[in-house]
Amino acid sequence: MNNIETFERLESNVRMYCRDLPLVFDTAQGSKIRGEDGREYLDFFAGAGALNYGHNDPRMRDALIAYLSANGVTHALDLHTTTKRQFLESLERDLFKPRGWDYKVQFTGPTGADAVEAALKLARKATGRSKIVSFYGAYHGMTAGALAVTGNRTRRGPGLSTDVVFVPYEDSPYGAFDSIGFLERLANDQGSGSELPAAVIVESVQIQAGVYPASNQWLQALRQWTRAHGVLLICDEIQAGCGRTGDFFGFERSGVVPDLITCAKSIGGYGLPMAIVLIGAGLDVWEPGDHIGTFRGNQLAFLTAQIALGYWRDEQFLKLLAANCAAMERAVAGYAEIPGVASARCRGMIAGIDFGRSNVALAKDAQQRVLQAGVLVDRCGPNGEIIKLMPPVNTPTEQLEQGLKAFGEAVAAALGQ
Ligand SMILES: Cc1ncc(COP(=O)(O)O)c(C=O)c1O
């Protein structure tokens, strides 16, 4: 029995995910989450990418308990703390050094949207320009600046910045587009009506748009174009980052090095709020206090984030991740063959099962059947016509395969197979 009466009576109409997944959850461990009625589900929703390492990772949980029991500092604004030092050192050791990267780390407010706000502000400050190029289908958050670079008209409202040029992404529900050719024209054609932008903001996989991964060549060409015109490249890795694509960041396979990287959701490792901007060499033009906020840097997340980053040195974790990416790709290739599925796309541990633009009701029905089969999934795409599969990246492979099988059967049932 899931009694949702209290939520319906007291919580704002703005709530969203709980409408498609109308359960009351209680406990969770790894890739499993339990409803208060005692039923267990495989969580292939994973906090929309905030739980890439699963629920209540025992090492992180034990470290948190020990830290709290020892009266470790839990809030410190941006004062120096031992946990922050350890986190910065682990970013340097586990992420920057192996890649030869030189970034400064900015702690923003704990949402992805605030990291995007900071990156846009910094790009404008560093270049003295105001325009930003973003892509059709992009999702960057809900605050005014972040929403201004978000493409979905159903999410945008009046009064947003018009200093944004939207360009179709490499691929989309409306087909492929020569985005780089368009940008060339924008820069070179005196009649384009647009001055050069401060930055291009891009997702290496457009996940909310329906799971459209950018090709390496496209990202490389984008990097070349931005460099040639003195435009900054911001990679928004808030959802595609932290292992979701099989690499730490989704753009890494292209060899591109962005000027600014926004990262949130799973960077804390445990589902605890934290967001950062990685700022390329020479671009840290902030004056002290230029972008502040009370909750910048979460001490508990610093602690769990170091453990999460440590997994990227752990052979067992890396082997499991590779095996899981292969299992996802195999399963998704199978879903594409189900009659009635329009297409299915996958990049590492993120997949989109596309029911076609006019088939939102079918996608909704399939999502409910998948839920009845014991697997939580979310929908994405312009109108919610695409089911998004994003299991924790370290799900035991057997559990992953079990969930993927149940998913395929429920989708086939929804499509009357
Ligand atoms: C690519 C991307 N950027 C930014 C955001 C905004 O993050 P938050 O919801 O934490 O504000 C999201 C959230 O889904 C996202 O997927």
TrEMBL record:
It comes from the Eukaryota. One of its GO terms (molecular function) is transaminase activity. Keywords: Aminotransferase, Pyridoxal phosphate, Transferase. Its cofactor is pyridoxal 5'-phosphate. The keyword Transferase applies. This is Diaminobutyrate--2-oxoglutarate transaminase. It comes from Diploscapter pachys. Belongs to the class-III pyridoxal-phosphate-dependent aminotransferase family. InterPro entries: Aminotrans_3, Aminotrans_3_PPA_site, Dat, PyrdxlP-dep_Trfase, PyrdxlP-dep_Trfase_major, PyrdxlP-dep_Trfase_small. It holds the Pfam family Aminotran_3.
